[in-house]
Design goal:
Elements: E1 2-7, H1 12-24, E2 28-31, H2 42-54, E3 60-65, H3 69-75, E4 83-85, H4 89-97, E5 103-107, H5 113-125, H6 132-146
Parallel strand pairs: 1-2, 1-3, 3-5, 4-5
Helix pairs in contact: 1-5, 2-3, 4-5
The protein binds D-ribose.
């Protein structure tokens, strides 16, 4: 799968560990930065990733900051994005099965690399179940449309 990954300074080490892991599994990874550990603003990197997912340049995304919250919130401001912050396998799996999430966000100060790899496995292998969940996801997207501000 063609994946995008983006992070702030807190996520640099975890990002490179995940790139190695995911490339080893055969995925193609587009790195949207940052590769620097100097303090930066997660919104810069989250927006780049979210735009790439929204316009189809990459199929799904992985977003990393200290908690996962700042970059995940940023991604969710881009039309078409459903990003979830995950630190457990159940939530990561159901973010796909029931919510059709297209970005997973991690807190590099919350979870370790082995957990992040496990969460990627769940997020990248579980498929959206559709059915009643398709109706609910459509309702989320209707909220986005009704409340879109120019
Ligand atoms: C940076 O110190 C930290 O605030 C950021 O990585 C993230 O956790 C914010 O949500």
């Amino acid at each position: 799968m063609k994946l995008g990954i983006a992070n702030d300074h807190a996520g640099v080490d975890l990002k490179f560990e995940l790139i190695d892991y995911l490339e080893g599994l055969g995925h193609e990874i587009v790195n949207f930065g940052t590769d620097e550990k100097e303090s930066t603003d997660y919104a810069i990197w989250g927006e780049k990733l979210a735009n790439a997912v929204a316009n189809g340049e990459v199929e799904r995304g992985i977003a990393i900051c200290g908690t996962g919250n700042g970059i995940g919130l940023t991604c969710n401001k881009v039309n078409g994005i459903r990003a979830c912050v995950c630190s457990d396998a159940y939530t990561a799996r159901y973010s796909r099965l029931h919510n059709d999430c297209n970005i997973i966000a991690f807190g590099a100060r919350v979870i370790g690399p082995d957990t992040a790899k496990m969460l990627c496995d769940e997020f990248l292998t579980a498929e959206f179940e559709g059915g009643r969940h398709a109706r609910r996801v459509a309702m989320i997207m209707d909220v986005e449309k009704r409340n879109h501000k120019e």
